Amino acid sequence: MGCYVLGFGEIDQMQVAVVGGKGAHLGELSRIEGLRVPAGFWVTTDAFRRIMAEAPSIDDRLDRLSRLGPDDREAISALSAQIRRTLEGIAIPDDLAAEITRQSARLGEGAAYAVRSSATAEDLPTASFAGQQDTYLNVVGPAAILRHVGRCWASLFTERAVTYRLRNGLDHRKVRMAVVVQRMVFPRAAGTLFTADPVTGNRKVACVEATFGLGEALVSGLVNADVYGVRDGEVVAMAVATKRLAIHASPAGGTREQEIEPERQDEPALTERQVMRLVRLGRRIEAHFGRPQDIEWCLVDDGFQIVQSRPITTLFPIPEAGDRENHVYVSVGHQQMMTDPMKPLGSRCGN
């Protein structure tokens, strides 16, 4: 019998096969002293395998998918939709449903949750599956949690995820899905922190993007973000966007768009002091993982909570050099030039 549900304290970054890339990073984050990570649990890949075994008809469709090319869009769309419908139609076995419900009740009766996909080929240093599987916010109640766990399993077969695997030669059968069920936080502001400049790759510059409300507003492209550049313990650039909308949790579950009062639209989402505090947390996370990170954060009651951290996949390892001189590295594979620690040009983070 497999292990179907695990708590955050039981997992570290080495257990991608059990809880997926996102889940393994969350487990490791929860081990960093002084870091606030919302509580939660995982529905493991063993549970996903069990559900897949309930639908032998999927095997034939996976065979047919594997024979397609990445440009066979109509066939990919049709087959992937069939697989998703099949998975969503499978009833979660009673023992598994009871364990998921018990774990969520332990974290708080009537609490709201984020239910997030975590594939075994996701959030790795060499692959970016960002946005290809599903995340659901402000999920309330046991029945809704179970329903959205099923939707996350099915989202392993979104058209874009299937196409990505075909383009990169990844076997559909070898990628599995875990699901993160995490206590929902309701932030005043949220966004991303890159511990290296995502445009130039300069590892001396951190770049913060921030908006009011939930970070989903940035992910969906609904709003432009405030952007802050930090170098050597100082905010060296700040561009405050006009933010007309925010995404907030809806009382009935899910999320809703909300207009921001005109007098607040041009206010910065963070103070410089908050930006500096966030970057210090980011440097601690970067040091723990040993490589530059793309971090998702929430500001709740003037304290930062970290809801995700992943490697910045466009950066390459720096060759060792012992002469302490300035070096320029050129990455042909990413068609990217990085200067470290020289001051590069053209960054939106003002480095």
In words, what does this structure look like?
It is a single chain. The protein has 351 residues and is of the alpha+beta class. The chain has two domains: 179 residues, ATP-grasp fold, A domain (Dna Ligase, domain 1, 2-Layer Sandwich); 152 residues, ATP-grasp fold, B domain (D-amino Acid Aminotransferase, Chain A, domain 1). The protein is 30% helix and 26% strand. It is built from nine helices and 15 strands. Strands 9-8-7-6-12-13 form a six-stranded antiparallel sheet. Strands 1-2-5-3-4 form a five-stranded antiparallel sheet. Strands 10-11 form a two-stranded antiparallel sheet. About 8% of the residues have low confidence.
Order of helices and strands: EHEHHHHEEHHEEEHEEEEHEEEE
Overall structural class, as computed from helix and strand content, comes to alpha+beta
- The gross shape turns out to be globular
CATH superfamily of the largest domain: ATP-grasp fold, A domain
Mean pLDDT: 85
Q: What spatial order of strands do you see in the largest sheet?
A: 9-8-7-6-12-13
What is the CATH T-level topology of the largest domain?
Dna Ligase, domain 1
Main beta sheet, described?
6 strands, antiparallel
Specify the number of helices.
9
What is the total domain count? 2
- Beta-strand level of the residues, as a percent range? 25-35%
Please name the CATH architecture of the largest domain.
2-Layer Sandwich
Which spans of ≥5 residues are poorly predicted at pLDDT below 50?
A: 123-131, 327-346
Could you tell me how far the N terminus lies from the C terminus, measured between alpha carbons in angstroms? 53 Å
